[in-house]
Amino acid sequence: MARSGRTGQRGSRRSPKRLVLGVFIFAFAALIIAQSAPQIRGAFDPVRTSVGDRLGSGERISLWSRISGQAAKDRRIHELEAEVRDLSRYKAAAISMAERLESYEELLNLMGEPPPRGVTARITSESEGPFAQTLLANAGRAQGVEPGSVAMNEGGLVGRVIQLGEHSSRILMVTDFNSRVPVIGEVSGVHAILHGGNTNSGTLTDMPERSDFVEGERILTSSEGGAFPRGLIVGEVRKASGDWRVKYAMSEGSAGYVQLIPPPVIPEPLPAPDVPAGDETSPAASPTQGARQ
Known about the structure:
CATH superfamily of the largest domain: Rod shape-determining protein MreC, domain 1
Oligomer: single chain
Order of helices and strands: HHHHEEEEEEEEEEEEH
CATH class of the largest domain: Mainly Beta
Strand content: 15-25%
Helix content: 25-40%
Radius of gyration: 38 Å
Number of domains: 3
Distance between the termini: 147 Å
Largest sheet: 6 strands, antiparallel, barrel
Strand order of the largest sheet: 1-2-5-4-3-12
CATH topology of the largest domain: Thrombin, subunit H
CATH architecture of the largest domain: Beta Barrel
């Protein structure tokens, strides 16, 4: 009786293990059968692909890399490399477009803006008095500076000369309240007037009602009014509190020097001299005479 009791206890102990083993075997067999069915295999493919990509990828990040921050640095390096590749493609496209534009201008005999020529001068600023938003340059008439010259630095437009001396010039900066600069959006082509504001950004006004700027585009001088040449960099446009604001590009250049460029003066055409009607040497008369003959 004692032996039969012990045998029953052993059998009762083994039965749960056998049951669990049987369940595992049944589940494994069911998984194999499910994988062989096309419909069920299609449902497992995304999971298998995701797990395989994670396990098979070459990026194995160790625990020390996560703790030390090296993993984040490596990820940032990969992102920057991708941006460099994209910028390289954009650079190649820009060079190609520039060459194409030059060929078109040469083909059309287009008269573009004259190349800038000017005088480079050192500047000092005034912090007090009525000329707080002006600069003094150590170049004047004796150095070739002309009245109304435009001041540029390595960042962009600084202002224009409002007072000219023999060896000095006073420059009204674009940040002054009295400054008004006609500008145009480089991408949108929208015209506007830039008002200074004694801050790092100016306000755009007098825009067309049905036009708008593109966020982040560059703002250039439009040459309207004849005070500034066309195409000088003024800054980048951003929208703040419902108004379009321009962050000045000149703030990026702080070397203490400006280039004073002559204003864009286009001479008025002179009247053509009167040519006698019977003058055969006249260029206008020769085609008519040839047609008559």
